[in-house]
Design a protein that fits this description.
The complex is a heterodimer. Chain A is mainly beta. Chain A is about 0% helix and about 50% strand. In chain A, strands 2, 4, 5, 6, 9, 10 and 11 form a seven-stranded mixed β-sheet that branches. A four-stranded antiparallel β-sheet of chain A has the order 1-3-8-7, with no helix packed on it. In chain A, a hairpin with a 2-residue loop joins strand 5 and strand 6. The relative contact order of chain A is 0.32. By secondary structure, chain B is mainly β. In chain B, the strands form two sheets. A five-stranded mixed β-sheet of chain B has the order 1-9-8-3-4, with no helix packed on it. A four-stranded antiparallel β-sheet of chain B has the order 2-7-6-5, with no helix packed on it. In chain B, a hairpin with a 4-residue loop joins strand 5 and strand 6. The radius of gyration of chain B is 13 Å and the shape is globular. Chain B starts with 8 loop residues before the first strand and ends with a strand. The model of chain B has no long low-confidence stretch (mean pLDDT about 90). Classes of the chains: A mainly beta, B mainly beta. Chains A and B meet through strand 4, strand 5, strand 9 and strand 10 of A and strand 3, strand 4 and strand 8 of B.
Protein backbone atom coordinates (compact mmCIF):
# COMPACT_ATOMS: atom_id res chain seq x y z
CA UNK A 1 0.00 0.00 0.00
CA UNK A 2 1.23 3.49 -0.81
CA UNK A 3 1.47 5.93 2.03
CA UNK A 4 3.52 8.06 4.34
CA UNK A 5 4.97 6.60 7.51
CA UNK A 6 6.24 8.36 10.59
CA UNK A 7 8.13 6.65 13.32
CA UNK A 8 8.08 6.28 16.19
CA UNK A 9 4.54 7.18 17.27
CA UNK A 10 5.69 8.21 20.75
CA UNK A 11 9.15 9.45 21.66
CA UNK A 12 10.59 10.48 24.99
CA UNK A 13 13.87 12.32 25.35
CA UNK A 14 15.79 14.08 28.05
CA UNK A 15 16.24 17.80 27.83
CA UNK A 16 19.38 18.78 25.95
CA UNK A 17 19.44 15.74 23.68
CA UNK A 18 19.01 15.87 19.94
CA UNK A 19 16.36 13.56 18.51
CA UNK A 20 15.54 12.58 14.93
CA UNK A 21 12.02 11.88 13.72
CA UNK A 22 11.59 9.65 10.70
CA UNK A 23 9.31 10.29 7.72
CA UNK A 24 9.17 7.94 4.73
CA UNK A 25 6.83 7.99 1.76
CA UNK A 26 6.37 5.61 -1.17
CA UNK A 27 3.97 7.83 -3.08
CA UNK A 28 6.67 9.14 -5.42
CA UNK A 29 5.89 12.68 -4.26
CA UNK A 30 8.43 15.43 -4.81
CA UNK A 31 7.31 17.78 -2.04
CA UNK A 32 7.54 16.95 1.67
CA UNK A 33 6.71 18.99 4.76
CA UNK A 34 7.17 18.99 8.51
CA UNK A 35 4.65 20.59 10.86
CA UNK A 36 4.45 21.10 14.57
CA UNK A 37 1.14 21.08 16.42
CA UNK A 38 0.68 22.15 20.04
CA UNK A 39 -2.45 21.24 22.04
CA UNK A 40 -5.56 23.00 20.72
CA UNK A 41 -3.57 24.79 18.04
CA UNK A 42 -3.26 24.62 14.27
CA UNK A 43 -0.33 23.26 12.28
CA UNK A 44 2.80 25.36 11.99
CA UNK A 45 5.28 24.76 9.16
CA UNK A 46 8.83 23.91 10.23
CA UNK A 47 10.59 22.96 6.98
CA UNK A 48 9.60 21.90 3.51
CA UNK A 49 11.36 20.36 0.54
CA UNK A 50 10.30 20.45 -3.07
CA UNK A 51 13.07 18.28 -4.48
CA UNK A 52 15.91 16.04 -3.36
CA UNK A 53 18.89 17.88 -1.84
CA UNK A 54 16.90 21.07 -1.42
CA UNK A 55 14.76 22.38 1.43
CA UNK A 56 13.47 25.69 2.78
CA UNK A 57 12.67 27.04 6.21
CA UNK A 58 9.08 27.38 7.22
CA UNK A 59 7.69 29.71 9.84
CA UNK A 60 9.29 28.09 12.91
CA UNK A 61 12.58 26.54 11.73
CA UNK A 62 14.74 27.65 14.65
CA UNK A 63 16.01 24.70 16.66
CA UNK A 64 15.23 22.18 13.92
CA UNK A 65 17.19 20.72 11.01
CA UNK A 66 16.28 18.48 8.08
CA UNK A 67 17.88 16.60 5.21
CA UNK A 68 16.53 15.34 1.91
CA UNK A 69 19.07 12.90 0.51
CA UNK A 70 16.43 10.61 -0.98
CA UNK A 71 13.07 11.38 -2.53
CA UNK A 72 11.37 8.98 -0.14
CA UNK A 73 12.82 10.29 3.11
CA UNK A 74 12.69 13.61 4.96
CA UNK A 75 13.95 13.20 8.55
CA UNK A 76 13.57 16.00 11.09
CA UNK A 77 16.09 16.56 13.87
CA UNK A 78 14.93 18.41 16.94
CA UNK A 79 18.07 19.92 18.40
CA UNK A 80 18.87 21.04 21.92
CA UNK A 81 18.49 24.62 20.68
CA UNK A 82 14.72 24.17 20.40
CA UNK A 83 13.42 25.81 23.56
CA UNK A 84 10.12 23.95 23.87
CA UNK A 85 10.27 20.76 21.79
CA UNK A 86 7.40 18.85 23.38
CA UNK A 87 4.70 18.72 20.68
CA UNK A 88 2.95 16.60 18.07
CA UNK A 89 4.96 16.47 14.82
CA UNK A 90 3.35 15.77 11.46
CA UNK A 91 5.00 14.96 8.16
CA UNK A 92 3.24 15.37 4.82
CA UNK A 93 3.93 14.89 1.14
CA UNK A 94 2.23 15.92 -2.04
CA UNK A 95 2.86 15.64 -5.75
CA UNK A 96 3.90 18.52 -7.95
CA UNK A 97 2.76 19.03 -11.51
CA UNK A 98 0.16 20.90 -13.49
CA UNK A 99 -3.58 20.61 -13.30
CA UNK A 100 -5.69 18.37 -11.10
CA UNK A 101 -5.32 17.63 -7.40
CA UNK A 102 -1.69 18.56 -6.88
CA UNK A 103 -2.51 20.47 -3.74
CA UNK A 104 -3.81 17.40 -1.94
CA UNK A 105 -1.32 16.58 0.78
CA UNK A 106 -1.04 13.21 2.46
CA UNK A 107 -0.13 13.11 6.12
CA UNK A 108 1.53 10.57 8.33
CA UNK A 109 0.03 9.58 11.67
CA UNK A 110 2.37 11.84 13.59
CA UNK A 111 5.03 11.52 16.28
CA UNK A 112 4.30 12.76 19.76
CA UNK A 113 7.56 13.98 21.27
CA UNK A 114 7.87 14.52 24.99
CA UNK A 115 11.00 16.05 26.43
CA UNK A 116 11.52 15.62 30.14
CA UNK B 1 0.58 33.43 -0.18
CA UNK B 2 -3.11 34.00 0.35
CA UNK B 3 -4.01 34.05 4.03
CA UNK B 4 -7.21 32.38 5.18
CA UNK B 5 -9.59 33.33 7.96
CA UNK B 6 -12.11 30.92 9.50
CA UNK B 7 -14.33 30.91 12.58
CA UNK B 8 -12.54 29.40 15.55
CA UNK B 9 -15.38 27.09 16.51
CA UNK B 10 -18.90 25.99 15.62
CA UNK B 11 -21.51 23.83 17.30
CA UNK B 12 -24.18 21.73 15.64
CA UNK B 13 -26.56 18.85 16.31
CA UNK B 14 -26.73 15.51 14.60
CA UNK B 15 -28.66 15.56 11.35
CA UNK B 16 -28.18 19.25 10.68
CA UNK B 17 -26.32 20.79 7.76
CA UNK B 18 -23.15 22.66 8.72
CA UNK B 19 -21.63 25.43 6.64
CA UNK B 20 -18.11 26.65 7.42
CA UNK B 21 -16.97 29.75 5.60
CA UNK B 22 -13.37 30.65 4.84
CA UNK B 23 -12.18 34.07 3.75
CA UNK B 24 -9.21 34.35 1.36
CA UNK B 25 -9.22 37.89 0.01
CA UNK B 26 -5.79 37.69 -1.63
CA UNK B 27 -6.31 34.49 -3.56
CA UNK B 28 -4.23 34.33 -6.75
CA UNK B 29 -5.37 33.25 -10.19
CA UNK B 30 -3.69 29.85 -10.04
CA UNK B 31 -4.68 29.05 -6.45
CA UNK B 32 -6.94 26.15 -5.58
CA UNK B 33 -9.00 25.97 -2.38
CA UNK B 34 -8.67 22.80 -0.37
CA UNK B 35 -10.32 21.66 2.86
CA UNK B 36 -8.90 19.17 5.32
CA UNK B 37 -10.35 17.41 8.35
CA UNK B 38 -8.34 16.52 11.44
CA UNK B 39 -9.28 14.25 14.33
CA UNK B 40 -7.34 14.40 17.61
CA UNK B 41 -3.87 12.86 17.46
CA UNK B 42 -4.13 12.17 13.74
CA UNK B 43 -2.83 13.86 10.61
CA UNK B 44 -5.26 15.96 8.57
CA UNK B 45 -6.97 14.27 5.68
CA UNK B 46 -8.22 15.73 2.43
CA UNK B 47 -11.96 16.41 2.15
CA UNK B 48 -12.56 18.43 -0.99
CA UNK B 49 -10.90 20.82 -3.40
CA UNK B 50 -12.20 23.38 -5.87
CA UNK B 51 -11.28 26.28 -8.07
CA UNK B 52 -14.60 28.00 -8.75
CA UNK B 53 -18.40 27.49 -8.56
CA UNK B 54 -19.48 24.31 -6.82
CA UNK B 55 -17.84 20.99 -6.20
CA UNK B 56 -19.53 18.01 -4.59
CA UNK B 57 -18.25 14.63 -3.52
CA UNK B 58 -19.56 11.84 -1.31
CA UNK B 59 -18.53 13.69 1.84
CA UNK B 60 -19.13 17.41 1.32
CA UNK B 61 -19.85 20.27 -1.02
CA UNK B 62 -17.68 23.30 -1.64
CA UNK B 63 -19.21 26.57 -2.79
CA UNK B 64 -16.97 29.23 -4.31
CA UNK B 65 -18.41 32.58 -5.47
CA UNK B 66 -17.32 34.20 -8.71
CA UNK B 67 -14.79 36.52 -7.04
CA UNK B 68 -13.21 33.52 -5.20
CA UNK B 69 -12.49 35.65 -2.13
CA UNK B 70 -14.28 33.18 0.10
CA UNK B 71 -15.45 29.59 0.09
CA UNK B 72 -17.97 27.58 2.08
CA UNK B 73 -17.61 23.97 3.08
CA UNK B 74 -21.01 22.34 3.48
CA UNK B 75 -21.40 19.12 5.46
CA UNK B 76 -24.88 17.61 5.00
CA UNK B 77 -26.58 15.90 7.93
CA UNK B 78 -23.62 15.79 10.29
CA UNK B 79 -23.12 12.98 12.76
CA UNK B 80 -21.12 12.75 15.98
CA UNK B 81 -18.18 11.39 13.97
CA UNK B 82 -17.91 14.70 12.11
CA UNK B 83 -16.65 16.34 15.30
CA UNK B 84 -13.19 17.49 14.21
CA UNK B 85 -11.13 20.49 13.19
CA UNK B 86 -11.59 21.70 9.62
CA UNK B 87 -8.87 23.63 7.80
CA UNK B 88 -9.18 25.74 4.70
CA UNK B 89 -6.04 26.12 2.58
CA UNK B 90 -5.23 28.10 -0.50
CA UNK B 91 -2.35 26.82 -2.59
CA UNK B 92 -1.30 26.89 -6.19
CA UNK B 93 -0.51 24.34 -8.78
CA UNK B 94 1.99 22.99 -9.71
CA UNK B 95 2.18 22.37 -6.00
CA UNK B 96 5.46 24.03 -5.22
CA UNK B 97 4.05 26.30 -2.52
CA UNK B 98 4.64 25.79 1.11
CA UNK B 99 1.33 24.72 2.62
CA UNK B 100 0.19 27.07 5.35
CA UNK B 101 -2.51 25.84 7.71
CA UNK B 102 -4.40 28.36 9.77
CA UNK B 103 -5.96 27.69 13.15
CA UNK B 104 -8.92 25.86 11.60
CA UNK B 105 -12.53 25.62 12.73
CA UNK B 106 -13.32 23.29 15.59
CA UNK B 107 -16.71 21.69 14.90
CA UNK B 108 -18.52 20.07 17.80
CA UNK B 109 -21.54 17.93 16.96
CA UNK B 110 -23.98 17.17 19.77
CA UNK B 111 -26.51 14.33 19.94
Amino acid sequence: DGGITQSPKYLFRKEGQNVTLSCEQNLNHDAMYWYRQDPGQGLRLIYYSQIVNDFQKGDIAEGYSVSREKKESFPLTVTSAQKNPTAFYLCASRPTGTGGRETEAFFGQGTRLTVV
Amino acid sequence: LAKTTQPISMDSYEGQEVNITCSHNNIATNDYITWYQQFPSQGPRFIIQGYKTKVTNEVASLFIPADRKSSTLSLPRVSLSDTAVYYCLVASTPGTDKLIFGTGTRLQVFP
